[in-house]
Design brief:
homodimer, alpha+beta, BCAT_family (chains A, B), amino-acid biosynthesis (chains A, B), branched-chain-amino-acid transaminase (chains A, B), Aminotransferase-like (chains A, B)
Chain lengths: 354, 354
């Protein structure tokens, strides 16, 4: 792929690595590439980060033909930079785009673009413990037209932002509201994709949870309103009587890279991982009879996010005395150890940016 | 409301009224207004139509917090301009925005903005039979941030485009695919809103229908995959054994202004209108035993769109010999008669733009 480079006159000052937050500071450059039917993908370029002029009739502003990905670049103790399973993000974006009738960026092209952008601004990959460069590839319909149809042109953009440790004071368990009014996904819909519409519709549940003193939402399936699917914008796993449970990938749940990696590690450690439908009634029952040992969300941003309490209608259960579980901590340490190059990468999951 | 007016230096040449198409030509001006928590709605202005610069981290491009409306301005035989039930669009947008956790534009402000924009460019309202000025109010999150949350700032925009008769050669029945794989909406989701995500997820069904030689999709409910809900981006009505059937407004179906108006007219004419769940099996059965007399989609763009055939799995039924039904035609003539001021507006549905 031929990537044009447009030099920026003045580079920004870099933010304090100890106060990065999440998605607040954007780096000096972004990757852009356009698609249309005649030329396919063309005009790949790394250009100064900045505004994209948009016609008010641009289809993405009306019909939300838009998808995204989330991944990170990690700086190792030796000062090298590595990515974690970037080909998984590339493939997932292709699947998202298929469902949304958008063109896919071929896997090699996607990974090459990510690497080139990170390499071009390697000084932006922070080195403080727990920090990383968050990478946000996204694509949207650019045709200016008001008919509802597959757009004739798209833009693929990658922006990057240095981010701090997700949990400034270590990972703490959170209180979760089991949502029985709003639905995140249903089979036949877009639940397995990272399309904008999924996130827009989820905000109401999040707002409601916060009003009720909870941090996040546990989503139930849209048909029976019974089976546990995701927590907030993460996958979720449970340890019940020594075995692991997580929702199966049947079209309503995001195929998380962290989810997949943790399942690999857990099975490697000899755990039985059940990718199966777990009902909220069985979960609450396990909470009450003490067999629910641990519960945690999994995702790129937080890696693992322990759950301390589930609130469902008039009932609630505390998990592991509202303390992070032993297995949860071990999974966090192992996966982040591989990602930051502190532990041996026996699965071959990391890719150097050279 | 104080609306600033920013004059455009050169007005565009107006397109040929006989070849307008849909959403191809945009007028000289647009309405814009911004919202943030501190100021609420502010900076209302009518400005030259043109590009809106957008930071690549703008939330609408990632999480699709965006809603829209669709309505028309009609030119009467006397040369006057009128709107059709604009307060219904205003109220529906407020409902859409509530679900998406976006601020609402108050009804009076919404209608005033629409009128001011139409008035400012009244020369753009075409006069050829069947033509109108399509009005597209829309709103989107403008905050530049990658956290998934209710955005802190929004933009409300209205653009307008002169449109031709939806059916250049009169209204013709179309062939419809009953979709049993993709789902448009489920209770607890966003089906009753005009949010971008609904439309993005619907494109795959449309593409599939076209591949199978059909013009549009008939959506079934997301839970039982059994009850008839909408057709394409329209509501749908059936005349079976002399009575009218249409899906009830229970959260999965758009509360269409045309739907509501036709129900009023039909009941006024003495028809029994059943807002109830009609199963696809009962529909196909009615098609086979001859009691399915007419079927038509209803919406702002096409007003009524007759269905000539339903294809469901290996079965198919022809409606009214693939000809437009008598009632369908009468409804079309009556509603468009009121909208263009050719018939008496006994319901008080039209509002002059003065």
């Amino acid at each position: 792929m031929d990537i044009r480079f447009e030099k920026r006159e003045h580079l920004q000052e870099k933010p304090d690595q100890k106060n990065l937050g999440f998605g607040k500071h954007f780096t000096d450059y972004m990757f852009v590439m356009d698609w249309d039917k005649e030329q396919g993908w063309h005009d790949a370029a790394i250009v100064p980060y900045g505004g994209i002029p948009m016609d008010p009739a641009t289809m993405v502003l009306h019909y939300a033909q838009e998808t995204f990905e989330g991944m990170k670049a990690y700086r190792t103790a030796e000062g090298k930079i590595q990515l974690f399973r970037p080909e998984m993000n590339a493939r997932r974006m292709i699947k998202s785009n298929e469902r949304l009738c958008m063109p896919g960026v071929p896997e090699e092209m996607f990974v090459e673009a990510v690497k080139a952008l990170v390499k071009a601004q390697e000084d932006w990959v922070p080195s403080e413990p727990g920090t990383s460069l968050y990478i946000r590839p996204f694509m949207f319909a650019t045709e200016a037209s008001l008919g509802v149809h597959m757009a004739k042109s798209y833009k693929f953009v990658i922006i990057t932002t240095p981010v701090g440790a997700y949990y400034a004071e270590g990972i703490n368990p959170v209180k979760i509201l089991v949502e029985d009014e709003y639905v995140r996904a249903v089979k036949g819909g877009t639940g397995f994709t990272k399309c904008g519409g999924n996130y827009a519709s989820s905000i109401a549940g999040q707002v409601k949870a916060e009003k009720m003193g909870c941090t996040q939402v546990l989503w139930l399936d849209g048909v029976h309103r019974k089976y546990v699917e995701e927590v907030g914008t993460m996958n979720i796993m449970f340890k019940i009587a020594g075995e692991i449970y997580t929702a199966p990938l049947e079209g309503t749940v995001l195929p998380g890279v962290t989810r997949d990696s943790l399942i690999h590690i857990l099975r490697d450690w000899g755990y039985k991982v059940n990718e199966t439908h777990l009902s909220i009634d069985d979960l609450m029952k396990a909470g009450h009879d003490g067999t629910l040992e641990e519960a945690f969300g999994t995702g790129t941003a937080a890696v693992v996010s322990p759950v301390g309490e589930f609130v469902y209608k008039d009932d609630s259960v505390i998990v592991n005395d509202f303390k992070i579980g032993e297995l949860t901590q071990k999974l966090y340490d192992t996966l982040t150890g591989i990602q930051w190059g502190k532990l041996e990468d026996k699965y071959g999951w990391t890719t150097p940016v050279e």
